[in-house]
Amino acid sequence: MEERYTRTYAEKLDAEDTLRSFRNEFYLENEYVYMDGNSLGLMSKRAEQSVYDLLASWKKHAIDGWTQGENAWYYLSESLGEKMAVLVGAQKEEVVVTGSTTVNLHQLVSTFYKPKGSKTKILADALNFPSDIYALKAQLKLKGYDESHLIQVQSEDGHILDEETIIDAMTEEIALIVLPSVLYRSGQILDMEKLTTAAHERGIKIGFDLCHSIGAVPHQLHDWDVDFAFWCTYKHLNGGPGSVAALYVNEKHFGAVPGLAGWFSSNKEKQFDMEHTLTAAGNAGAFQIGTPHVLSTAPLIGALELFHEAGIEKIREKSLQLTAYMVELIEHELKEFDFEICNPVNEKQRGGHIYLEHPEAARICKALKRKKVIPDFRKPSGIRLAPVALYNSFTDVYECIQTLKNIMEEKAYEQFSNEREVVS
Ligand SMILES: *Cc1c(COP(=O)(O)O)cnc(C)c1O
């Protein structure tokens, strides 16, 4: 057997991996090979500790916890926003930790969608995550428009979007554009800089959903002049189930009136004057609504430390090595089994996960789980495998593909039904 396809080779890659010690920061229970960090990242010891610390600050300070203690709750959304800014290439005041992905999308569209004259439509894509599309349709309805005002750019092969086709759809009628940074299925990275430049040349504001790129891929939102962005923190950022999301608003829009206002939109010095006229914060903080979900923010205090220690550029470098290695193994080991690699293979467009299609995907995923490899299934025939730089090893990738090969050789998937689980 050629050396490249052996476990010894995977172990050699692990020995050379400068990020390998970060694996010890995480709970890898039950000897799983966890390949689902793009749906729910693993718990780190730091995240766990920061939750305990937050609980202790409540116990100790009660109401005074808002302004006292190491992570005073009143300023936590802003201070974590500052820490997250490096991950998206933003100025410190352009990011705040708040809400959820979908609520933040509602907030930003409420703020930046200003239909006028014949410029009334929203441009999106046909491959985005359903929640984004539901929110955009709901926002149109609130403004009195029907769904025909949502223009969804189609994909030729059902996996990949062509930036030129998106740009061609930026017509006079478009008032706002919302696109993903990385497509949740195929993992394609869209060229955000190019799309932003094209949108602005046509006088259109543009925002991105970073759910699948945050923590895996570096961004330069400020330099690219992106108008706004939003993302969740429970995928690659490892904030835990339902951890609080974040948003970015370009500083040129500071002062924009938040579409969904609440008292936490306030300038923090003014907030407790309790006036009935809002004086909004002069930064991204203005796009918060109500009292922050402090307990669900707490894990991020610890989780983000790991990103600062490792560095997002290094994380991306290792992520690319892991996915390239995975593609190589798939091509070599699985060639007789009908898998189709549907993610872009080139580095510029390849996000943090691999996306395979197979007619028996649902039950192949069940068979993988039985063998302690955790993938995720996307209806009707998709398998996503996310080797995560901070906690997965090259040996994990090797194990994952070997297990998949064994399942295919033995047809071990035949003992399961080819239907999805309630949560997949
Ligand atoms: C994960 C994800 C969401 C989830 O939205 P929540 O409000 O956090 O439930 C939305 N959009 C995209 C593109 C996602 O990947």
Automatic annotation (TrEMBL):
<feature type="binding site">
    <location>
        <position position="101"/>
    </location>
    <ligand>
        <name>pyridoxal 5'-phosphate</name>
    </ligand>
</feature>
<feature type="modified residue" description="N6-(pyridoxal phosphate)lysine">
    <location>
        <position position="235"/>
    </location>
</feature>
<feature type="binding site">
    <location>
        <position position="212"/>
    </location>
    <ligand>
        <name>pyridoxal 5'-phosphate</name>
    </ligand>
</feature>
<dbReference type="InterPro" id="IPR015421">
    <property type="entry name" value="PyrdxlP-dep_Trfase_major"/>
</dbReference>
<comment type="function">
    <text>Catalyzes the cleavage of L-kynurenine (L-Kyn) and L-3-hydroxykynurenine (L-3OHKyn) into anthranilic acid (AA) and 3-hydroxyanthranilic acid (3-OHAA), respectively.</text>
</comment>
<dbReference type="Pfam" id="PF22580">
    <property type="entry name" value="KYNU_C"/>
</dbReference>
<keyword id="KW-0662">Pyridine nucleotide biosynthesis</keyword>
<dbReference type="GO" id="GO:0030429">
    <property type="term" value="F:kynureninase activity"/>
</dbReference>
<feature type="binding site">
    <location>
        <begin position="129"/>
        <end position="132"/>
    </location>
    <ligand>
        <name>pyridoxal 5'-phosphate</name>
    </ligand>
</feature>
<comment type="pathway">
    <text>Amino-acid degradation; L-kynurenine degradation; L-alanine and anthranilate from L-kynurenine: step 1/1.</text>
</comment>
<dbReference type="InterPro" id="IPR015424">
    <property type="entry name" value="PyrdxlP-dep_Trfase"/>
</dbReference>
<feature type="binding site">
    <location>
        <position position="291"/>
    </location>
    <ligand>
        <name>pyridoxal 5'-phosphate</name>
    </ligand>
</feature>
<dbReference type="GO" id="GO:0019805">
    <property type="term" value="P:quinolinate biosynthetic process"/>
</dbReference>
<keyword id="KW-0663">Pyridoxal phosphate</keyword>
<comment type="pathway">
    <text>Cofactor biosynthesis; NAD(+) biosynthesis; quinolinate from L-kynurenine: step 2/3.</text>
</comment>
<feature type="binding site">
    <location>
        <position position="263"/>
    </location>
    <ligand>
        <name>pyridoxal 5'-phosphate</name>
    </ligand>
</feature>
<dbReference type="GO" id="GO:0009435">
    <property type="term" value="P:NAD+ biosynthetic process"/>
</dbReference>
<dbReference type="GO" id="GO:0043420">
    <property type="term" value="P:anthranilate metabolic process"/>
</dbReference>
<feature type="binding site">
    <location>
        <position position="234"/>
    </location>
    <ligand>
        <name>pyridoxal 5'-phosphate</name>
    </ligand>
</feature>
<dbReference type="InterPro" id="IPR010111">
    <property type="entry name" value="Kynureninase"/>
</dbReference>
<feature type="binding site">
    <location>
        <position position="209"/>
    </location>
    <ligand>
        <name>pyridoxal 5'-phosphate</name>
    </ligand>
</feature>
<feature type="binding site">
    <location>
        <position position="102"/>
    </location>
    <ligand>
        <name>pyridoxal 5'-phosphate</name>
    </ligand>
</feature>
<comment type="subunit">
    <text>Homodimer.</text>
</comment>
<protein>
    <recommendedName>
        <fullName>Kynureninase</fullName>
        <ecNumber>3.7.1.3</ecNumber>
    </recommendedName>
</protein>
<keyword id="KW-0378">Hydrolase</keyword>
<dbReference type="GO" id="GO:0097053">
    <property type="term" value="P:L-kynurenine catabolic process"/>
</dbReference>
<dbReference type="GO" id="GO:0019441">
    <property type="term" value="P:L-tryptophan catabolic process to kynurenine"/>
</dbReference>
<comment type="similarity">
    <text>Belongs to the kynureninase family.</text>
</comment>
<dbReference type="GO" id="GO:0005737">
    <property type="term" value="C:cytoplasm"/>
</dbReference>
<dbReference type="InterPro" id="IPR015422">
    <property type="entry name" value="PyrdxlP-dep_Trfase_small"/>
</dbReference>
<dbReference type="GO" id="GO:0030170">
    <property type="term" value="F:pyridoxal phosphate binding"/>
</dbReference>
